[in-house]
Specification:
Layout lengths: L7 E3 L5 E3 L2 H24 L5 H30 L6 E2 L5 E2 L3
Antiparallel strand pairs: 1-2, 3-4
Helix pairs in contact: 1-2
Length: 97
């Protein structure tokens, strides 16, 4: 089974706006993991007992959380304003920071 997850911004008025390409690209990994986990829940989980389902969710769910955390750092870095040069209090000029 293939599952498609679409992520959009939803405004206060309920209007939907697509994500900018950079944000969408950064979210591709977590979206793929989430889609895979949903597909497993529909098709793969039935063959497993309760304990094995928990183990799978623990492992794959943790990986989803890890990729989401990694994505938050990548989003922060993408939004961070870079400074081309910096001058210290002592008047020393430093390169890119």
């Amino acid at each position: 089974m293939a599952v498609a997850v679409t992520v959009e911004r939803v405004g206060e008025d309920g209007g939907r706006v697509p994500l900018d390409p950079e944000t969408a690209a950064l979210l591709a990994g977590p979206i793929e993991r989430c889609s895979s986990l949903i597909g497993w829940a529909v098709d793969g989980a039935a063959a497993l007992d309760h304990g094995d389902r928990e183990k799978t969710l623990e492992t794959d769910g943790r990986e989803l959380l890890r990729t989401l955390l990694e994505t938050t750092f990548a989003l922060d870095a993408a939004r961070e304003q870079r400074v081309s040069h910096l001058v210290s209090a002592a008047g020393i000029r430093h390169g890119g920071v």
